[in-house]
Write a structure and sequence with these properties.
Elements: H1 5-8, E1 10-15, H2 20-32, E2 37-41, H3 49-55, H4 59-63, E3 66-68, H5 71-74, E4 80-84, E5 94-96, H6 98-109, E6 114-118, H7 127-131, E7 135-137, H8 150-165, H9 183-199, H10 211-220, H11 226-241
Parallel strand pairs: 1-2, 1-6, 2-3, 4-6, 4-7, 5-7
Helix pairs in contact: 2-3, 2-8, 6-8, 9-11
Length: 244
């Protein structure tokens, strides 16, 4: 028997999609694999008839798609976000292949919302968008011709997610001792930490280099629990109260 709950907890997030046909194609790819939660960050043209045509019998996915002005809004209440990337980046988070990324997403999705984030057709995700995710996934396409259509990439990942969801080993809840922190809570922690570093003069906002990017990469190596984020913020509060 197929366990559908994890797939219901997976959001497919398309950021700044240029071609409405790719939105429709993505909706069709999702429905064929049992996913239904589509989030669109500033699409160039949506709603659009071309999206409807490409979606064929997946119009219901488009009708219930959530349009967001920022990636932060699209990731609200999620505890894990995985970024699709087509190229190596400096200071990137841990890179997984499609199978391992899908297994990780489904593992967490048995209990909490997760997101798989796709970027622009021409340039992919920005560095700022990638840093809001904890993991990255790369489709090992032919290096001689690695040009993969957005909707096709969505189809590949939706297939991997479905295969992970119907694997009996992935259908048991995680039974975490503590509730995982949401990405919103982690983002507030980063903002709090950055302000504290600026106040203490450890971080020069005029010459930040890539300190916060390195710190984000450091914490992305673990799945932070809500209580752990509260402890970290409590430490910052205590240090802020200290008089020089």
């Amino acid at each position: 028997m197929i366990h559908h709950a994890p797939l219901d907890n997976v959001r497919i997030v398309l950021s700044h999609t240029s071609h409405p046909g790719n939105i429709g194609g993505s909706a069709r790819a999702m429905k064929t694999m049992g996913l239904s939660s589509l989030y669109l960050v500033n699409p160039k043209s949506f709603p659009d008839n071309e999206a409807n045509v490409r979606a064929t019998n997946a119009r219901d996915i488009l009708d219930q798609a959530v349009i967001c002005s920022t990636l932060d809004i699209a990731l609200q209440n999620c505890v894990l976000a995985v970024a699709m990337t087509a190229r190596a980046r400096d200071l990137t988070h841990q890179v997984l292949d499609t199978r391992r990324a899908a297994q990780k997403l489904i593992e967490i999705a048995t209990e909490s919302p997760v997101a798989l984030v796709f970027g622009r057709e021409s340039a992919g995700l920005t560095t700022a968008e990638v840093t809001k995710c904890q993991l990255t996934v790369h489709i090992p396409a032919n290096p001689a011709y690695a040009s993969l259509n957005l909707a096709a990439a969505v189809q590949i990942m939706c297939y991997e997610l479905r295969m992970a969801a119907i694997d009996p080993e992935n259908q048991s809840p995680r039974h975490e001792a503590q509730q995982l922190a949401s990405l919103n809570e982690i983002e507030l922690f980063y903002q709090h930490l950055e302000q504290a570093l600026i106040t203490s003069k450890f971080l020069d906002p005029q010459q930040p280099k890539r300190l916060m990017q390195r710190i984000r990469r450091l914490f992305s190596r673990t799945t932070l629990e809500k209580e752990e984020v509260n402890i970290l913020r409590g430490i910052i509060h205590a240090l802020e109260k200290e008089k020089p």
